[in-house]
Amino acid sequence: MPGRNQDLCLQDDPHIAVMMAGSTLRKVKSRSWKKQRHFRLLEDGLTIWYKSRWAGRGHSTFSVTEVEAVREGHQSEVLLSIAEEFPASHCFTLVFHGRQGNLDLVADSPEEARAWVQGVRKLIHKAQTMDEKERLDQWVFDWFQKADKNKDGKMNFKEVKTLLKMMNVEMNEEHALHLFTMADKSESGSLEIEEFVLFYKMLTQRDEVWKVFQDYSGDGEKLMLEELESFLKIEQHEGEQSGRRAKELIGRYEPSETGERFLPAMSLDGFQMYLCSQEGSIFRPELLELQQDMSRPLSHYFISSSHNTYLLEDQLRGHSSVEAYIQALKRGCRCVELDCWDGHDGEPIVYHGHTLTTKILFKDIISTVKEYAFKASDFPVILSLENHCSVEQQTVMARYLRQILGDALLVCPLGGHDLQHLPPPQVRIRLRSRFKVKHPGTLPSVQFFFFIYSIYFFLQKSKLSRELSDLVVYCKSVHFHGFDHARSHAKFYEMSSFSESKARRLAKEAGADFVQYNMRQLSRVYPGGLRTDSSNYNPQDMWNVGCQIVALNFQTAGLEMDLNDGLFRQNGGCGYVLKPDFMRDATSRFNPEKPEEHQGYKPLRLAVQVISGQQLPKVNQKEGSIVDPLVRVEVYGVPKDQAREETPHIQNNGFNPVWNKTLNFVIHTPELALVRFVVEDYDKASRNDFIGQFTLPFKCMQTGFRHIHLLSKDGTAIPPSSLFVNISISEFYNLKNTYFPP
User: Where does the record say carbohydrate is attached (predicted)?
Assistant: First the structure.
């Protein structure tokens, strides 16, 4: 079993050996909360276990797969606050994916801290680089570890029954015993690890995948090269590249060392592995990469944007933290906000004014932004400054911006681009040679670089210090006086901010004018003032009219952030998405309220066959509780595209529920539509519980048999939970039988 071999390799590493032996570390939450906990890495090489010495049998665990990074030294606000008490060489921080808080730890020695830092980093790298087979092996090994309650390296039938409940499976005892007996080759009444692998394979045998396999397999045992090519061409719509792709997929996913791999052919195991891979997922892999034209004016892009970025919680009493900026920037956010106020000792501060939210120093935020701005994306960051400071402290802000950001800060107009439009995200700088021009009219040698370290910002106040106002280059904040006024008077570098209610009203009353306005200028939309709980509005309404900076509360998980993450998942997650042609063409009069009047109107029909689900997570952790899952498909886009359909619920089966239900939609404006797949635990007496979701742009969907890898409410992966679907997109005929080609 690979799990055991992995353990042996891990134990050979000195850093991993320290982790497996265990260490007593201080868990730090604040200057006054510092408590010792015993931490150790479990035998699976992925789970970190910890408990206090007074907790009895109680303990906590987390997986290394939940950890995004390890920071050494005083690289968190908490550890900075105790810097005088504990040296940096003893301190480190575990940073988790999503919105989960950091874990700040202090070791007794630099050597022990270094072992944990290096060890966790190696484990993160190992988890990130596992192939599909290794992930499956690890998953099987994890279940064996969970089921083997007495840790004797074997699993009796009682432990098997407990395991089935843990795996969200409702199975009658007779059938469970039948599978157990078939796997118990040694007839010992218990399963060792190799026998458990066989039990797991029988348990996870997927009839729905087998049926698809059988439709194309001549002998029912394997897919010959030409048979796999036919499947790719007919079902997966791979077209002329099907032959080449078939060879690639066999080489990549066929697990057998002999036979099929050299025929070449693909077994059922290899076929299922392909379907569960990234290439078999619903998201077109090539569109996950940076592939859009980044040379258009900024106004031609949707820009991932955060509102009141400094807050981790609500708008009235919430905690302000530089960690909020780190989290937003790591998600690809390209516009962050700072509410700036006068602080003590001449130091500008940031907080939600006239509330009980905590305060942080302006200079600390700028330092943090400089460090993290370009880790997830190379493209420009916009600093949105809501300025409430005195002229004196504005001057201090300007000094910090120049000192900390240095050459990364844009302080003058860029040369080499059209001065009648905003610059593009990808700007090339012409650097003239230091040699003098010897002849009039000739150009010196020129070198081109991608302009990536640029930070723009704007201000919503009239009394400005000269030093700060001189830093405003392209984003001058102005009051909106109407679309007619903007057409005749507005400058391309002027931008206006709109409350969600005003933006929504303008979109409904004058959608085509709003689209035109947003071709030339930037507009920013922010949540209404009554959203003190940091809830969000639906950003789709604003994207429908081309608003670029649609600011959301990134700290609040839910539908709205799912849509935001879904839109910006494409194009390398760089935080910029090119708007559709009709939102960039000055001759277009696109109105989201009347998409059928658009010259390029080409509606499509979407059919989603929801076939099955795989290993859905438990919502209620009470012993014996099993989910009753249903799937809902939601479409977001122009008003005519807003729709939702759902399957019936399946009772007591979160492990391998089968629906085989087809849901149909008409998409009037495919270029703007987002599709959200939601899985819920049905409850007839109260609101359904959320299980998982995945959201993506309609134009990024792959047709054919696909897996949808589900995300948690927090937006993090929950492998191996997935849905198996068949996606069909075709031309749409209206009632007059008018033909619209796909």
Answer: 186
